[in-house]
Amino acid sequence: MGEDSKDRAKSGIFKERIKDYMGKSDLLLELYSNLSTTGAVTFSSKALVNKMLSHTNLQGAKLIVELGGGDGSITQGIVDRMDPGSELLVFEISKSFCESMEKMFPQQNVRIINDSAENIADYLEGRKVDYILSSLPFSFIPPEVKDAILSNSKIALNQSGYFIQICYSYLLKNLFKKHFDKVSLSFTLKNLPPAFVMVCS
Ligand SMILES: C[S@@+](CC[C@H](N)C(=O)[O-])C[C@H]1O[C@@H](n2cnc3c(N)ncnc32)[C@H](O)[C@@H]1O
Predict the structure, then answer these.
(1) What mean pLDDT comes out for the span 147-170?
(2) Distance between CA atoms of 124 and 36, rounded to whole angstroms?
(3) d(CA 1, CA 162)
(4) Which of 145, 146, 169, 188 is most buried (CB neighbours < 10 A)?
(5) Does one domain contain both 178 and 85?
(6) How far apart are alpha carbons 87 and 174 in whole angstroms?
(7) Is the domain of 67 the same as that of 86?
(8) Is the Cβ–Cβ distance between 64 and 87 less than 8 Å?
(9) Which residue from 32, 37, 150 has its CB within 8 A of the most atoms of ligand 1, so it is best to mutate?
(10) What is the whole-number distance in angstroms between the Cα of residue 111 and the centre of ligand 1?
(11) Counting atoms of ligand 1 from 1, which one is nearest the CA of 141?
């Protein structure tokens, strides 16, 4: 390759990197600008996503729902593990996050839904869900909406289904106990801030 072509190739790579960086910084800006609905200052770390998904066996799951898709960090973990024949519905109230996730996940079996999580039943066409994976900021959500999300999620799950939640406060356990018979808990320091994973059934 001549010097000119090398320079052009390098500048192409550089532009791609700038684009990636801008994409990530735009996502963070969206996160910070809407703290009352996003409830977080960073997205979930890969270690936290792995911890959350270690409580699942997505192979064989037919219908999976994610609540609060955000930057798609958990979505990516789910997509990497789910069967090609299964379907993933991702609820997210931010239009910008939805537009970004639609580009990240163009596959036909991933549906990005720009609606609030309590409306889950409107999109299921009577089907039951195997796993609901949530990173919703429950500490910031009004009580009546919290209760609607959790009771509608419980109804949506099949009998052996699980609702799995990432959260930063141990006290939220009481909220999940109101809606689910069993709630177990694990913890990871490998996230900023350190986080709990609540597994509800
Ligand atoms: C803490 S962020 C998590 C983002 C990403 N999944 C992660 O783990 O880093 C919570 C996300 O939930 C979304 N959200 C908040 N309330 C919601 C609701 N009622 N329905 C759907 N999404 C909601 C926010 O816009 C935000 O993107």
Answers:
(1) 96
(2) 28
(3) 55
(4) 146
(5) yes
(6) 31
(7) yes
(8) yes
(9) 37
(10) 16
(11) 16
Q: How many domains does the chain have?
A: 2
Burial class (CB in 10 A: 0-12, 13-18, 19+), 142: exposed
What sections of the chain are H helices per DSSP?
A: 3-33, 35-38, 46-53, 73-81, 95-104, 143-156, 173-179
Provide the CA 161 distance to its chain's centre, in angstroms.
17
Give the range of the structural domain holding residue 64, as residue numbers without chain letter.
Answer: 36-200
Note the ipTM here.
0.99
Cα 108 to averaged position of ligand 1 atoms, centre (Å): 22
- Spatial separation of the C-alpha atoms in residues 133 and 52, rounded to whole Å: 8
Question: Which residues, other chains included, contact 115 with Cβ-Cβ below 8 Å and sequence gap of 6+?
Answer: 91, 93, 122, 123
Choose the weakest-confidence range: 37-41, 98-102, 109-113, 183-187.
Answer: 37-41
